[in-house]
Amino acid sequence: MLKQQIAASLELAFSQYGFAEPNVDKLKTACNVSLRTLYKHYPSKEAMVVAALEYRHQRYLAYLENGLSNEGEQNLSTIFQRLEVWMTDNAPHGCLSMNAIAAFPDNAMIDQAVKEHKESVHQFLAAKSHRADLANILFLLHEGVSSAWPILGTEAITSAQTALSTLMTTKHQTKR
């Protein structure tokens, strides 16, 4: 339980401060634990980053999943609407995973955590849309919104939804 609480606090701290600014002492304060307790659960700053990313991953997929129907196209619309809320509320500086890769480009643990997260999102989009044939395109739209968010804000979502609508209309026409 304490380990999960620390991971949640680390996620919030890295989301607010980025990865360069908070030293371990600041992270300890953000987690409201002793340095010994923090290091007991996460023995390095990189382990703290991975814990934050894994916690966020679970939280993000649960957020997207909540209340989805069995209708693929409706799910896509809902997922992208939720992505907008997520970015506004949780990721105003862009995707935390990609920010972690930028801050720690040579760290294998962080790289692996990010790759696993991205692959899960890719599979989630394919499954919930019921369109495995469009999985790569849907993933690129999702990632494009996450990357462009700090610059375009809601315009990124609007553009992705327009592209999605065009894509689905085109795909329906070619199936006939």
UniProtKB/TrEMBL annotation:
Q: Which PROSITE patterns match?
A: HTH_TETR_2
Q: Which Gene3D superfamilies match?
A: Tetracycline Repressor, domain 2
One MF term in GO for this entry? DNA binding
SUPFAM superfamilies recorded:
Homeodomain-like
Among InterPro entries, the record links this protein to:
Homeodomain-like_sf, HTH_TetR
Annotated region of DNA binding: 23-42
| Residue intervals of the HTH tetR-type domain | 1-60
What Pfam families does the database record attribute to this sequence? TetR_N (PF00440)
Q: Could you tell me the keywords of this UniProt record?
A: DNA-binding, Transcription, Transcription regulation
Origin superkingdom: Bacteria
Q: This protein is called what?
A: TetR family transcriptional regulator
> What organism is this sequence from?
Marinomonas ushuaiensis DSM 15871
